[in-house]
Amino acid sequence: MTVIVETLEKLQRKITLNLPVEAVQSEVSARLRKMARTVKMDGFRPGKVPMNVVTQRYGYSVHYEVMNDKVGEAFAAAANQAKLRVAGQPSISEATGASEGFMAFDAVFEVFPEVVIGDLTSAEVETVTADVTDAAIDKTIDILRKQRRTFSQRPHDAAAQDTDRVTVDFEGKIEGELFEGGKAEDFQFILGDGQMLKEFEEATRGMKFGESKTFPLAFPAEYHGKDVAGKTADFLVTLKKVEAAHLPAVDDALAAALGIADGTVDGLRADIRKNLQREVKARLLGRNKQVVMDALVSKAELDLPKSSVQSEVERLVEGARADLKQRGVKDADKAPIPGELFTAQAERRVRLGLVVAELVRAHQLHATADQIKAHIDELAASYEKPAEVVRWYYGDNRRMAEVESIVIENNVTAYVLSQLKVSEKAISFDELMGQN
C-alpha cells in the first residue's frame, strides 16, 4: 500500500492509517479466548467462565489494547516504508472518510531534521594548555600534610592565629532573638581555613583563653540558611581552647604513610604528578571540548523538533526536582518548576546532539571497543584496585553507554579540532583548577 506523507510545517508530518475492522475484531476475539482459559471469576471454575461473561467484563479493555497495538504497528510500518526518521511519539486521532470495512486514523508527528554543517575550516577557536608544575605538586603535598596534622594546646596567654584550632562557645541573635543554628558549645574550627564566615574568623583571631567578644556579622544574601540570609546578627563568642597545628615532615615516613610503593619522597612526588596530569588532561579536554562544540554548532543549520526539545525540558525539570529532594526540600517532587526556565538549555542540548550525531554518521566517528577499554582503564587507574573498577563498568550496560557517549564526544572533538583554525593559550595550573 502506498503511504502518503503530508507536510504540515517544517518538521511536522501527517499520515492517515487505515485498519481493517475485521483484523481488529479477530485479534480481540483471539485475546479474549486466550484470557478465558485462565481467568478467575467468582462462581466459576478457572477456565470455565462463559465467553459472553468474559467479553462483558474485559471486552472494552481488550479492544482498547488491540487498537493501540494495531495503530502502533501500522504507524511503524508506514514510517518505515516512507523511510521517515520519527522524532518523539505521534499524536493519533480518529479520521473521517474511512472506506467501508476500515477504520481511519490520522498520525501527526515530527521527523528529525536534515543537518547541514558548514565549512569548519573557516572557524577560529582558542584552546588552552596547562602544565603540572613543581609548585602544584608542593601545594598538593601541603594539602596531604594538613589532612594528617596534629594539634597541641598552646599556653593560655597565646593569641589565636591562623592555622590554630580553636574551641569556642558562641551565641548569635537577630534583633535580640536567638535563631536556629546560632548557638553552639565546644565548637571547633581552624582559623584561616575558611570554615567560618570572614567576620567570625576576624573576631576570633587574636583572642586568648577565656576571653569573650561581641561583634556584628552580616550574612551574605546568598547564604544557604534562608532564614538569616541578608540579615545582620550580633554574636557573643568565648574562646575556650587554642591548639597549635603540627604538620608532618615531608620525608619517606610520610610517603610510606600515604601508601607510596617505594616509600620515598621522590616516589610520592612522581605519584602526585601522575594523578595531577590525569586531572589536568580531563579538565583541558572539558574546556576545549566546550569551545569546539560551540564552534561546531555555530556552523550548523537545522530545525529543532519541538517534541525532542519538550522531552529534554521535562528531563531537566525532573533533574531539578531530584536536586531539590537531595537537598532535603519538602515535597520536592511536586515543586512548581516552570519548564520555560530550561527551554534555552534544552534547545542547545538537542541541537548539539543532532549535530554530533550527524558528524558521527558522516565521518564514522563511532566509539570502538579499544577506545572504550582505554577510557575505562584510564578512569580506573586512579583507584587503589583498578581491576575492580573495570569490572564495575563492564558489569552495567548503562555505565558502558555513558562511557561510549564520552568516547564519541572525544572523537568528535578531535575531528572538529583537526578542521578548525586553532590557536593555543597557555594558562596556569591554578587557573585551570579554579584556584584563582
**What string gives the helices and strands in order?**
EEHHEEEEHEEEHEEHHEHHHHHEH
Can you name the CATH architecture of the largest domain? Orthogonal Bundle
Task: Give me the secondary-structure category.
Answer: alpha+beta
User: Alpha-carbon distance between the termini?
Assistant: 67 Å
Give the total of domains: 3
Spatial shape: extended
In this structure, how is the largest beta sheet organized?
5 strands, antiparallel
Q: Summed up, what is this model?
A:
This protein has helices at 21-36, 51-81, 134-147, 198-204, 252-257, 265-298, 306-326, 343-363, 369-380, 386-394, 397-419, 429-432, and strands at 5-7, 12-20, 86-94, 102-111, 116-117, 124-129, 150-153, 165-174, 177-190, 212-218, 232-246, 300-301, 421-426. It is an alpha+beta fold and 436 residues long. It has three domains: 5-111, Alpha-Beta Plaits (2-Layer Sandwich); 149-246, Roll (Chitinase A, domain 3), CATH 3.10.50.40; 255-432, Trigger factor, domain 2 (Orthogonal Bundle).
Care to describe what's here?
With 436 residues, this protein is α+β, with helices and mostly antiparallel strands. The protein folds into three domains: 5-111, Trigger factor ribosome-binding domain (Alpha-Beta Plaits); 149-246, Roll (Chitinase A, domain 3); 255-432, Trigger factor, domain 2. The chain has twelve helices and 13 strands. The protein has helices at 21-36, 51-81, 134-147, 198-204, 252-257, 265-298, 306-326, 343-363, 369-380, 386-394, 397-419, 429-432; strands spanning 5-7, 12-20, 86-94, 102-111, 116-117, 124-129, 150-153, 165-174, 177-190, 212-218, 232-246, 300-301, 421-426. Strands 7, 8, 9, 10 and 11 form a five-stranded antiparallel β-sheet that branches. A hairpin with a 7-residue loop joins strand 3 and strand 4. The radius of gyration is 33 Å and the shape is extended. The protein starts with a strand and ends with a helix. The mean pLDDT is 90.
